[in-house]
DNA sequence: TTCCCGTTTTAGACTTAGTCTAAACTCCAT
DNA sequence: ATGGAGTTTAGACTAAGTCTAAAACGGGAA
């Protein structure tokens, strides 16, 4: 709790009750939640929190570098508390998004593109649990 | 033109004027258009075509294997007439999506995941024109 | 040819993800 | 205590996409 407050302060975010609750839900999450999923989680502990605040806070956390916005599901943005580079596997049956360690895949010289300066990349896999 | 008609017939799609126009726009496109972008293109030659028809037709073409739906831009689905495996680079300045040939990147044994059966994957790069 | 009936198209209602607005609330500094 | 910047809120608004139900189309059968 105090850790969370300090983490927000360190990133120049005023730690309000609503922001702490959104941060708690999103930063602890393993499963790349959408904003409305975070809202549903947050409502149980913070019953008057509004949709606007959840969207605002998630966008603020992303802007301040505590979360990454990702485009992995059709039509919605998901939020990812894991900041270090990694890949994603989307379960074709359940839709769940799983993290794949960066080092578990060897990729050749991808930055060596003649036409573009490659700033960053990731692999998106699709599959199902064995 | 006759080619397009035959292509639709081969895929059990009745070639109507509207479908031919949507197919012409989407299949010829190099730039991964959204449904509303296809609608805008189609309207110039087929001024009464409706949004519903464009969405229906794009989804039909995807279902029949003439197009691939892709999740590459936040909040919208784009349609890709290029059926063979390839990667994508998103220009961080313009948002344009560029195709990257499959063979231009060497990826190690990605199918060898202990927990999942990997059905398919692609690399999403971000960068900007040199 | 004309007619018929299944297929297709259409406008617009509806849904969902997300942003914006403006009023109300909070809470720290004076 | 009071003021004011910062925050939260409900609800309006927008944009992507689906659905509905009526109208239009069109390829055979007669
Ligand atoms: Mn569009
Ligand atoms: Mn949207
Ligand atoms: Zn992740
Ligand atoms: Zn492509």
Task: Tell me what you see in this structure.
- The structure is a homodimer.
- Chain A is an alpha+beta fold and about 130 residues long.
- Helix content of chain A is about 35%, strand content about 30%.
- In chain A, the strands form two sheets. Chain A has a three-stranded mixed β-sheet with strand order 4-3-5, with no helix packed on it. In chain A, strands 1-2 form a two-stranded antiparallel sheet.
- The radius of gyration of chain A is 17 Å and the shape is globular.
- Chain A starts with a helix and ends with a strand.
- The interface of A and B includes residues 73 and 122 of A.
- One manganese (II) ion binds near residues 34, 36, 37 and 76 of chain B.
- Chain A binds a DNA duplex (30 and 30 nucleotides) through helix 4.
Summarize the topology.
The structure is a homodimer of 130-residue chains.
Chain A: H1 2-10, H2 17-28, H3 35-45, H4 51-63, E1 68-73, E2 76-80, E3 86-91, E4 97-101, E5 116-129
Parallel strand pairs in A: 3-5
Antiparallel strand pairs in A: 1-2, 3-4
The complex binds manganese (II) ion (2 copies) and zinc ion (2 copies).
The first copy, chain A, binds a DNA duplex (30 and 30 nucleotides) through helix 4.
């Amino acid at each position: 709790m105090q850790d969370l407050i300090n983490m927000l302060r360190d990133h120049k975010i005023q730690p309000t009750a609503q922001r702490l609750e959104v941060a708690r839900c999103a930063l602890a999450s393993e499963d790349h939640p959408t904003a409305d999923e975070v809202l549903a989680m947050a409502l149980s502990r913070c019953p008057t929190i509004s949709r606007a605040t959840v969207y605002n806070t998630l966008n603020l956390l992303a802007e301040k570098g505590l979360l990454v916005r990702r485009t992995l599901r059709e039509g919605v943005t998901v939020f990812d508390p894991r900041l270090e580079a990694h890949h994603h596997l989307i379960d074709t049956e359940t839709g769940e998004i799983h993290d794949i360690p960066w080092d578990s895949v060897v990729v050749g010289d991808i930055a060596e593109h003649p036409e573009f300066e490659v700033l960053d990349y990731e692999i998106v896999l699709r599959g199902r649990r064995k």
